[in-house]
Each structure stands twice: as structure tokens, then as C-alpha cells.
Amino acid sequence: MNILRRAIARNRWRLLAGCLLVALHQACEALVPVVIGETVDLAVATGSFLRLVTWVGLLGLLFLLLTVAYRTGARLLMRALADESHALRLEVAAKVLDPRAENRTGDVLTISTTDADHASYLLDYIPRIIGALVATTVSGLGLCLISVPLGLVVLVGTPVVLIGLQRAAPRIARRVATRQEVAGRASSTATDLVTGLRPLRGIGAQEAADARYREVSREALRATLLAARTQGLFQAASITVSTLLACGIAILAGWFALTGRISAGELITVIGLAAFLGEPFGALSAAPGWIATARASADRIADVLRASPAVETAGDPPVLPASGEILGVVAETDPVGLVQLYDDGSPDVLVAPHDPELFSGTIRENVVLSASDGLDDVLRASAADDVVAAHPDGLDHTISERGAALSGGQRQRLALARALLARPRLLVLHDPTTAVDAVTEHAIARGIRDLRHRPGSTFGTLIVTTSPALLAVTDRVVVLRDGEVVATGTHASLGAADPGYRAAVLR
């Protein structure tokens, strides 16, 4: 998948307009020293007031044109850049949010932010490169009209310099890619440590975790310094060569003026163009580094988007609850894969995974995602009312990202409350009470039953679990092995007659 080529294709019209406007701006910039030199030779030197007014007016129109072209082109290109960066973030997010995907959090963070920005910057680099080429060409032609040797210094010297600098691009790309990869590992490690801080403290593994992060962090620092050193040397070389080229033009022009080969106005034009050429020379010299960085980031994005799902979920769910039924499922093999079979994106189906996901904000913002009717009943059914009551701010209590400051049981209860409040026609729960105590688990089991399965209810609830408390409130229990039904009945009947069920559930 060529991310850069696709970015150009889907922004082609704004990119084309932006390139034309930037090229026009650079051409006008290059013409400014020419107009000033002509003003000196044709108006100032002759003492003609009318010519002075005419050439000054032309200079003013030139500045107006270049200003309008720049502002309009920059606006178009910045919009294209922002849209492309946003589109890349959405694609990466859609890929990693696939329940079958396997991605390290730190990698996702750097790819969806830094790499998405760097790849989309190509839409800014292309117009700048084209503008620099136009400016260099116009300047070179202008110098040829004054002196062919001066023009040839620009028109011949510039390609030679660029070809030489291009040889460093592959090394820059490799080192930038390494830097981004190692930075992703460091971010992932930091995220894992923060998320698992309580268990680490519980087993006394803080020092080992700290040593691991210190090692990854130092590796990231080394990669960053190496990439920065390479880019710095490349930039220093490009600036030095560009400056020497511009200085050579100015020195040669000064010699021509002293020997009478060019006029005072032409000298002003040459000096002005030499000073102006520093910017396009710098842009063209830096272009290989820009492209290398964009390519390295695009490759990392493409790796994420090309990744095959870790678990294939093709096929239909093996069992479904009847209307109004609460169905228990004991999956002897691959319960995670089973749960994923129900996640088909239908608005009538909601799958609440085993690991609850919370985000930074208030308790209310984590639970109430749309309508809040029946919130009190939902909080009681999920035993989340205790979590709310434990904080002076209640529902307005602020929780940190991923609910890191909450216990596992508190996170599970808030996530369950959110799922119950959505009122889906089919709710699939995967071990929603593994982190709560036995008393709370029984209360939650009864709460789910009473909330969703009152007389006349058409809701269906499917609970994948081995919890006796949850299975005891179901209407029916199905035992699955390798996707096949091997036993069915009530919790009580299976517990009495099926030794395998007793071993899995009543242990």
C-alpha cells in the first residue's frame, strides 16, 4: 500500500492548485530583484519621474500578486494537509479498534500522531519543491540575460548539488524509521507500566519494571540522537553548499561590475537574486530529507493497515438467545474468539468485552453515551452505584485515562453500567464480574436479570462465563467445545448430571 501516492491522488485538485499558486508566488519573488534593477537603470539613472512611478507601480502589483498567491495557496495546502492527516488517523484507529487486531499501544500512539503528520506533510513538501524549482529556474534565466556565466552557475550547479545530496536520503529514511519504531516501544512500555501499576506493586516488581523501562527509554534516546545527528549533518551540508553557491554568484557579479561588464542596476539584480536564491537552494537541498522522513512514516502506517487480523472470525455465532431469554455459554475452548463472532457492527447487538475500556473524563461521561433515562436503575443493577457513592462528586467525579486510579472491579462495574444503559436488543457479556467480590457478583447477576428480563421483555442477553452466580440466573446454559454444542440445560441440571460442567464451573 503506497500511502504517499494515495495521499497525492485523493488531494490532487487542491494540491495542483496549491502548487500553481506557490509556483506563481516564487516566480514573483524571483522577479522582484529584476524589477528593482530595471527601476535603477531605466528610472533612477535617467532621472525620469514618470518611469520611476511606472516601475514602482509595477513593483507594487508584483508584491500584491505574490501575497495573494501565497495566502491562497497556503490555505488550500494546509486544508489538504489537515484533512489527509485526519484521514490517516481515522484509518489507523479503525484498524486497531478491530477486536481481532494486535497492536502495541505505544506504536498506535506514535503512528496515529507523529507518523500521520509526517506522511501528510508530503502535501506541503511537493509545492515547496516545485516552487523552489520555479524560483531557481526564473532566477537562472534572469541571470543569463545579464551574464551567461552567472546563469549557468545556477542552472548547472543546482542539479549537481541536488544529485550529490540525494545519496544521503536512504540513510536518513532508515534512521528515522528506527527512531519511530523504538519510540513506539518506549511509549508502549510506559503505557503498560501505568496500566499495571497496582499489580506490579502487589508482587513487588516495581524495580524490574523500572529497569525495563529505563533500558527501552535509553534505546529510544540513542535512536533519536542518531537520527538527529544524521539529519543535522545533512542540513549543515546542504546549507553550506547553498550558501557557497549564492556567495559565488555574488562575488562573480561584483567582479563583473568592477570590470564594467554589468551596470549598477544589473549588479543590484544579481545581488538580490543571490540573496533570494538562499531560500530555494535550502528547500531543494533539504528535500531529500523531507521525502525520506515522509516515506519512513508512510511505511509504518502501511504496516498497520496491511496487518492481517490476529483471529479470523468468519462464520455465524453457534448459539443465540431467544427473545426475552438470558442465555449462559460455557466455552471450554477459545471464549475470546467466540465472543468476537457476535461483534458484527449491528446496532441491535452490543458486545461488552472482558477488559473494560474507560477514558479520561467524568463517571457520567464514561457511562452516559446517549440518553440517560433509567440511569439510577442501571447503576443499581451493575452495582456501580457504590462506585458513584464512594466519591464526593458522584457522577461528576473525574477519572484518569483508562480509569487507572480505579480498581479492576470498579472499572468492570462502570463498563457494565454503560452497556446496560445502551439497551441493545442483544447484549453479549464476557466475564463481566471477574474482578468483584462474591457478594457483589450475586447482586450484579440478579440486577442484570431484573433490569433486562422483566415480564414481557424482548431483550436477549448472552453471558459467556464460568461464574456460578451469573449462570444461576440464566434461563438456559449451553456448553461449547471447539464451536460445537456438547451439552445444554439449566445451571442446576447440568451441575447435577454433567461432571465436565461441574469441573469447569463448580470448582
Write the layout of secondary structure elements.
Layout: H1 3-10, H2 12-44, H3 49-96, H4 105-120, H5 122-146, H6 148-166, H7 169-195, H8 197-203, H9 206-258, H10 264-276, H11 278-306, E1 326-331, H12 335-340, E2 349-352, E3 361-362, H13 363-367, H14 375-381, H15 385-389, E4 398-399, H16 408-422, E5 426-430, H17 438-452, E6 460-464, H18 468-471, E7 476-481, E8 484-489, H19 491-497, H20 499-505
Helix pairs in contact: 2-3, 2-5, 2-10, 3-4, 4-7, 4-11, 5-6, 5-11, 6-9, 6-11, 7-9, 7-11, 9-10, 9-11, 14-16, 14-17, 19-20
Main location: membrane
Subcellular location: Cell membrane
Membrane topology: Multi-pass membrane protein
Summary of the model, kept short:
GO terms for molecular function: ABC-type oligopeptide transporter activity; ATP binding; ATP hydrolysis activity. Residues 16-285 form the ABC transmembrane type-1 domain. By secondary structure, the chain is of the alpha/beta class.
